[in-house]
Design goal:
Organism: Leucobacter coleopterorum
CATH topology of the largest domain: Aminopeptidase
Structural class: alpha+beta
Bound molecules: zinc ion
Helix content: 25-40%
Shape: globular
Radius of gyration: 23 Å
CATH architecture of the largest domain: 3-Layer(aba) Sandwich
Low-confidence stretches: none
Cofactor: Zn(2+)
Family: Belongs to the peptidase M20A family.
Oligomer: single chain
Keywords: Hydrolase, Metal-binding, Zinc
Protein name: M20/M25/M40 family metallo-hydrolase
Largest sheet: 6 strands, mixed
CATH superfamily of the largest domain: Zn peptidases
Strand order of the largest sheet: 3-4-8-5-9-21
Length: 444
């Protein structure tokens, strides 16, 4: 293992590669690897640079690292920067390179976590090391958190810290974390390229539900119409085939309109057809829009039965439901209606949607930092389709933004492979993004 004191000499991209070499796979249900080792390494790197970081967490294995840097003006509300250190597991056979080797080649950093989100952890660490080296103090207090267990819901990371160590976040008003600020180049109707850096100001809510039913067990050769499993299947079927209505929140509307107009079009978002056409014109920027124009529900787990000739007395299914800001109660009422009297349902987890103030001085500062390095950047607000640790911090009243900036790659390549195979991130995106992040954190 290279010594932490070499960290200061590494670029953000090289630091990202170094962090990838810690296999921090999070297998869920409390099983993880490597979070203690990566936390120790980050802790030692920060100490070597003269900081006083702390290792925190419910057990030594589920370690997170936290550090508060005092700002010049301590009367200003503080900002939290959070980056998770765990990653999702890999299927090595699907990869063309070893997933935890931390290779840099062909202008990419390769490996699990290169995009989600050891890139942001590395950019944040690089910023802190630069500050230490150059004697720079940020304008306001910055709380930096390298946090465990995001990929399995944060029970041993963000959620634990919020419940057990809330004093670490004293005075924090806003936070930045993953999924936002990435450069997306798009070609206009007249053939020019425009660069968009959507910053997340909202997240859909995560409602994980369980539908279950009980009945009489019996012999498979004596059909019982409407037995427990059939009722659960029927309820899931009603939920799965329900057409959730189009619901454009202000954020999603502005996201689609800003990008589509900048591409030289005149979006008409007054009906489903106009929205579909506008989203198609957004190309890769349309993916997140598509996931956030309505609520969604997907059956992901079903448990019932022990043997083919036995009618089970009990059946259950689990569904992943995502709701837009402002729709939670409506979605719950629809689920009640769809499940009906045939089965029961309850929450396995209920994480409400979150929204951060927009427009706001926080958002302006992020846009300014991006535009300082890319004067033609267009920075629209965005709603995330999934969820992050921002939801846990929101319970302390902290407004979460998705801002982990990635600059443009000169060959137009983009990060890819998140949660899949051959995850990789262009070196230029990470090193350029780190400059944007550093400028924001210093001046905000
Ligand atoms: Zn992530």
């Amino acid at each position: 293992m290279s010594q932490p004191n070499t960290a200061q000499r590494l670029s953000a991209a090289e630091l990202c590669a170094r962090l990838i070499r810690f296999d921090t796979s999070n297998y869920g249900e409390g099983h993880s690897a490597g979070e203690r080792d990566i936390a120790s390494w980050i802790h030692a790197s920060l100490k070597h640079a003269g900081y006083a970081p702390q290792i925190v967490g419910p057990t030594p294995a589920r370690a997170s690292v936290v550090l508060r840097i005092n700002g010049k003006d301590r009367s200003l509300p503080a900002l939290l920067v959070h980056a998770h250190t765990d990653v999702v597991p890999v299927e090595p056979s699907q990869w063309s390179v070893p997933a935890f080797a931390g290779h840099i080649s062909d202008g990419y950093v390769w490996g699990r976590g290169a995009v989600d989100m050891k890139d942001m952890a590395a950019m944040t660490l690089k910023t802190l090391l630069n500050w230490a080296e150059n004697g720079i103090q940020p304008r306001r207090d910055i709380v930096v958190l390298f946090v465990a267990d995001e990929e399995s819901g944060g029970e041993f990371g963000a959620t634990w810290l919020v419940a057990n160590r809330p004093e670490l976040f004293a005075g924090v008003e806003a936070a930045i974390g993953e999924s936002g600020g990435e450069a997306i180049p798009l070609v206009t109707s007249s053939g020019e390229t425009r660069r968009f850096y959507p910053v997340a100001t909202a997240e859909r809510g995560t409602l994980q539900i369980r539908i279950h039913a009980t009945g009489k067990a019996g012999h498979g050769s004596r059909p019982q119409p409407g037995h427990a499993l059939q009722r659960v299947i029927a309820a899931c079927d009603r939920v799965n085939s329900y057409e959730w209505p189009l619901h454009l929140t202000g954020t999603v509307r502005e996201y689609i309109e800003t990008i589509d107009r900048a591409l030289g079009n005149s979006p008409d978002l007054s009906d489903e057809e106009g929205v579909t056409l506008a989203i198609q014109r957004l190309g890769p920027a349309g993916e997140v829009a598509l996931a956030t124009t309505r609520c969604t529900a997907t059956t992901t787990v079903i448990n019932a039965g022990v043997k083919v000739n036995v009618i089970p007395s009990h059946a259950e299914a689990q569904l992943d439901v995502r709701c837009l800001p402002g729709t939670e109660n409506e979605v719950i009422a629809v689920l009640d209606q769809l499940v009906g009297d045939d089965a029961e349902w309850e929450f396995l987890a209920k994480h409400s949607p979150v929204s951060a103030p927009y427009p706001s001085s926080w958002f302006d500062a992020m846009r300014d930092a991006i535009q300082f390095y890319d004067s033609e950047a267009i920075v629209p607000p965005m709603c995330m389709g999934g969820g992050t640790d921002a939801k846990a911090f929101a319970t302390l009243g902290i407004s979460g933004y998705g801002f982990a900036p990635l600059a443009i790659d000169s060959e137009g390549r983009r990060p890819s492979g998140m949660h899949g195979a051959d995850e990789r991130n262009p070196v230029e995106c990470i090193n350029g993004g780190q400059k944007m992040l550093e400028r924001f954190l210093t001046r905000v």
